[in-house]
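Worked problem 6 (solution included).
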Amino acid sequence: MKKLSASVTIISVTLSGCAMQQGDFPSLLKRPYEDDSPIRESSAPAVAISSLSAEQQNRLNAAAAKSVAADDKFQTSLPRVKKRAAAARGAAVSSESWVVAQMELAALEILRSPSVEALADIDALYREQLVRQGGQNASGGTAVIAKQRDVVRRQVERQQAEIDSMKGQLR
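Solution. The predicted structure is:
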């Protein structure tokens, strides 16, 4: 009986709170901004908060910019070089088309060299930051550097794959 009267008391107190009509309560209607389109992510890159010094951040940004510029030049020249390599496919070694294709490939490798240098710069910065953080590679500045390092590494790998593919045609 005690449990029943306690249950009835709890239920009646709970329900009486729902029945109150006095007071200035907020409306449960939708607010005007709730009907607008959903929030979209900004196309601007998010600014990462890190433990990098201004000098380190500047070095990282400079290396990334160097790699992007080199990749742009590489991508611009790539169709021309692919055309030359395709024209030289099956040609005899030292023939004119083979030599032209080899020269174009060499020029393409020179265009990509700033990307490779940028990757080396970022690797050096990463090692310095690891030492600074005591070997913890998943937090702080190393995480910021690692993210940019992965972007540049993928660019370098794509460039190398393109060059290797064309070299394979010329053998």
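Discussion: The chain is about 70% helix and 0% strand.
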